[in-house]
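Following up on my earlier thread - several people asked me to post the actual chain instead of describing it. Fair enough. Here it is, all 102 residues.
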Amino acid sequence: MSVYAVDFDGYLCRDAWPEIGEPNTNIIEHFKELRNQGNKLILWTCREGQALQDAVEWCAGHGLVFDAHNENLPEMSEWFGNDCRKIGADWYCDDRSYWLLP
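Reply from S.P.:
Thanks for posting it. Predicted structure:
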């Protein structure tokens, strides 16, 4: 199992901040498959409050469900005894990194 921290704006959807852009369906399908294989997904975004909730609901509407949102996985927070500010993941996936497409 791997943990993927996945960006939203500009990666899962085209950048249209503060709105939500068109979906990047190839990337969405890729992460749905990774989760189906038993990997964990963290929605890793600068959005917060209602904008974060809108992103979570938008993703769910596209069949993409996350194990955490802008925080570490619950089991990791329990193991360490806190939820530090740095998101722990094996892979960090966003529009500013080298690994853009599956």
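Residues 49-61 form the longest helix (13 residues). That should answer part of your original question.
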